[in-house]
Amino acid sequence: MEIVKKTPAKLGTHDLCPGCGHGIVIRLIEEVIEELGQENNQIVIAGVGCVCTATPAMRFDRFQAAHGRAAATAEGVKRVRPDVLVFAYQGDGDAYTIGIAESLNAAYRNENITQFVINNVNFGMTGGQMSWTTLPGQKTMTSVSGRNAELTGLPFHFPEMVAGSKGFHVAYAARGAVIDAKTINQTKRMIRSALEAQLNGEGFSVVEILSPCPTNWHMSPKQCREQITGPIIAEYPLGEFKTRD
Ligand SMILES: Cc1ncc(C[n+]2csc(CCOP(=O)(O)OP(=O)(O)O)c2C)c(N)n1
Ligand code: SF4
Fold first, then answer.
1. How far, in Å, from the CA of 208 to the mean position of ligand 2?
2. Domain count of the chain?
3. Does any domain span residue 3?
4. Strands 114-119 and 61-64: what pairing?
5. What separation in Å is there between the alpha carbon of 35 and the centre of ligand 2?
6. For 182-193, what is each residue's pLDDT tens digit?
7. Could you give the CA distance from residue 63 to residue 207 in angstroms, rounded to a whole number?
8. Is residue 10 part of a domain?
9. Which helix (H) or strand (E) holds 42?
10. pLDDT, tens digit, for every residue of 76-131?
């Protein structure tokens, strides 16, 4: 078998697919960090997933965590450098399906870090396998006839869970999307609130962002937008579930 070696993206470029939402989210985080005057005082803890193909384009200091472990890694960095703005950037597969223990522990202890979770309802980088957020009936590489919720569980709602469950006292939890000007602006405000919460020492903040994955959904960017505004938002409503006190 021929092994094809892919050349890594050059500094300042990325390998994201056309129409992918990751690039918009990264841009929003960069804008907010600049507006908060923190561009020389931040570090991203990158999860494993398509974010890795975008890291050469990121204007952040960065640390690559092991798969699913970004929240725990962010806690460690924040504890030794409490003066630095520390945020985990992960996909839903990384933060939930694989890394839920770390994500829940960070939220449960109200660690003073921020978590951004790009929810594209599948494992994007590895070819579109089912994740905890995959919709019932959704066809993926590992649910070829559609997700069977009885067998594999129902869609998972992390921001609602940490905002509303007894025993959790997080600072901020919200869900946004990046599908049009309105949702992009709303998501930017959420990103700002989350990072401001950390700067004020208020504790754990999380923003989950619904994001298109045209390649693995086998849809055009326009169809992806309709998929998010329709069935995905019906399952995952946008909004703030825990606002800052
Ligand atoms: C321990 C381990 N298990 C599995 C993998 C393979 N793997 C790499 S990226 C990835 C999917 C990541 O999906 P997600 O976190 O949803 O991010 P996306 O690519 O969709 O942005 C998987 C399963 C790995 N690198 N390490
Ligand atoms: S596979 Fe999906 S999430 Fe990954 S870069 Fe392509 S469109 Fe984006």
1. 16
2. 1
3. no
4. unpaired
5. 28
6. 999 999 999 999
7. 20
8. no
9. strand 42-46
10. 999 999 999 999 999 999 999 999 999 999 999 999 999 999 999 999 999 999 99
